[in-house]
User: Fold this.
Amino acid sequence: MTASLARVPCTIVTGFLGAGKTTLIRHVLGNAQGRRLAVIVNEFGDVGIDGEILKGCGNAACPEDNIVELANGCLCCTVADEFVPALDAILAKDGVEHIVIETSGLALPKPLVQAFHWPAIKNRVTVDSVVVVVDGAALADGRVAHDVEALRQQRAADTALDHDDPIEEVFEDQIACADLVVLNKRDLLDQAGIDKAMTAIAEALPRRVKVVSVSDGKVDAGLLLGLGVGTEADIGNRRTHHDDEVDHDHDEFDSFVVPVGEVADPAELAARVAAVAEKFDVLRVKGFAAVTDKPLRLLVQAVGARVSHHYDRPWAASEPRQSRLVVIGLKGLDRAAVARALQHDPEKPALEL
Assistant:
């Protein structure tokens, strides 16, 4: 029992692209209730973006050097190469009381939880809980993410593929591993929408799991941290679509970076992003922009055509004022056309990740 008490608890935060995982974690860092935290962040294709968003909190509960970014592949696919070394780096620091792990939006939680049985780490860490963040607005519209219809059409047109929607399978596998479900974006829903979203979650849940509905990822840290579930002890009982597969891939998606130049009007940039999402098979856009005559960095985030932006912090004296947006969309996305639509200077090429 003593060894169990000495292990550092880890909360795994998972959920589909754009559900609000990073926003939720940022809120937790700002309301840590005295806990000294560390974060491992691994977002599909978002090199430096989610880590930068979290580092922008400037909160003493989680200093910048306690945030470890993994950008060499989905964490559930690279457990040995990525996750264990990241844990080693964090556990080598003094005073870390709780670790928050943000998975890729495409990650399957089960392989990650199973890694907590590995001899190298099983006596040092435990899974406090698996928290799944879901997009309430999408669920109310009958989807698991903001725009999956284009993916359904693409797969249905290809007779060589299984017609089951892989995004829905990822959603169901995430829900199957959940200890807590956070229904996010409640502010975008009326009561009928909330009821429909809750029904969709209940239909996907294989067992009784607490569901909380919130706006802007604002979950009380006392509710999110310290659940003490020890999920690794039960993970074998949580059946998923991928239990009988040796591995899996994410070949349905493309990700690339677009430099957009200095921005004169944030609203105009947001309109450009929204227009791109409407015209192309874009699921997610996020990044930072330099605004003319403004010393503050503009954070831009979009789920489909829903775009938000705000100034998150001043540009550091040592960092270049670069405007770069990460675009995540369906495989076969016309990268050149998307880049032309987004860029302030259309001569600049999109950069592959």
